[in-house]
Amino acid sequence: MVDSNNPLYQELLTRLKPLGPFQEEIKKTSIHLVRKSAFLGVHPRKQGMVLTVKAAGPIENDRVMKAEQVSKSRWHIDIKIASAHDLDPELLGWVRQAYELCA
User: Fold this and answer.
1) Which of 30, 32, 58, 70 could pair covalently with 25 via S-S, beta carbons 3.0-4.6 A apart?
2) What is the separation, in whole angstroms, between the first and last Cα of the chain?
């Protein structure tokens, strides 16, 4: 099971609270944050975590590790997070868009 008490993960949850209600689904190797469907996947690593953000299209940015088109109008965008500093307004904007996609 994933350690949901990780300080970096807890900081992420704190910064996401203003979005509105969502549920945590704790899996073996990840945590899904869900509105009506998952808008964010959290994959803990020894150093930080990888966030998989749902998007309507590709995100062109140096922070993107991987972008995968999963259907005609949905993409999964992987972004590495090393510290709370990486949980900046740009990233939170992408997560807000993902949250709104899952309304």
Assistant:
1) 32
2) 28
